[in-house]
Amino acid sequence: MSEQEVSMEKLATYEKTWLDNAFWETPQKQLLNAICEYTDEKNRKIRKVLQLPRLDETGVENPVFNQCVEFLGDDAIDASTAERRRRKLEEAEVKKQKEIEKQKAKKLEKLFEYKLETFEIDEIKDSKNRQLKSKLRRAKSIPEVNLYAMLIIKDIADAEQQAAE
Amino acid sequence: MPNNKQPSKGYLSVASKNQNFYVYAINLIESVKDYYPDARYCLVTDEAFLDGRESIVDDLILTSGEAIGAYRAKLWGMARSPYDQTMYLDADMTCEHEDIEFVFDDLRDRDMVFHELSKERENYFAVKYFNYGGKKEHMKLCGGVCLYNSAKPIVKEFMEDWWQYYSKQYAGNWMPESFDKAEFNKNLKVFDQTTLWWLTEKLEKYKDLNIGYFDDDIRWNYFSQYAYDMLQSKSGKPPVMRHFSGSLPKDQLIV
Q1: Can you give the residue range of the structural domain that contains A115?
Q2: What is the number of structural domains in chain B?
Q3: Whether the predicted interface score ipTM is above 0.90
Q4: CA of B22 vs chain A CAs: smallest distance (Å)
Q5: H runs (alpha helix) in B43-114
Q6: What pTM, to 2 d.p., does this model score?
């Protein structure tokens, strides 16, 4: 007998209360996650987190599993399982959204740095075309930055050509 | 006769020690003027950085004396604002919204207005909690932006004291005895926030200053990392000023 089985047998003898957040691990309801509280022989208040199989390895029903289901009720565990699943999906969605926002923010930081580098190109640095420079500063992507950078260079070239004519 | 003269209002940024800050500041000033063409802007900078782009500013103050190349010359600059009401902005920011024009409305009858180091934002600040006189204290004001009544002598004096005390603190010549020395030297000495906390919380001379936060303060100093936690403004409006403090190179040249 393993140590866990011994402690499970022992556990079955205690009078326990069960927290109402127990949930099925699988839709087949063969494995139950639950937290119980009881007082041991030394008068210590114990809180124990358990993963309870319905049957042991030999196919015999687990008394602690049955005690938990009897205490909380099958419907309450179903409801708690559904609530947990909803919460976990919501948390996963928030986490996913946060990761997307983080990537967007990092992209924005890189874009800002790229703009500053672009503004350091001599022709752009010296350009007096505030309108195009403003558009470059507001650009939402690197290709857009490049586009306005080229327009600024073209603007200078056009002005030089006009001056030469 | 009543004085009906309207107070002058302007923005101020400081670029010192590192050429990058001059580049950041020019970009910032141009971005403010993109959204608010009539903005008056004062740049405080080291003469060595000037390359002609400073022609965009309305008022130029060149650092002098100990402020030349100083790590926190911003404090020196803040004390020398040419305006009656000043909106100080860290150089590594950019303007993204036309509401920049209305920031002065937030001053009301207050002396200084800051961005708050609130609980939800504490992940993004280097130091928030520290020991003082055996008690755990925390910083509340972020000096990245500051709207202040620069026409008021006591406020100007405050800014000058901030600069003077910080300079001594940074040089290792000043530390109020209630700080924990080891912690001070390791974490606090380098920060102008430390001096700001002490001046506003512990110095009798400034106890009557009317200091507050911007009404929707995240809009005026939206650190780019705030987006990692999806932090938003109270009003749901987009940021006015985005701050790239944590992501830009401070010491490497931009190009």
Answers
A1: 99-164
A2: 1
A3: no
A4: 11
A5: 73-78
A6: 0.86
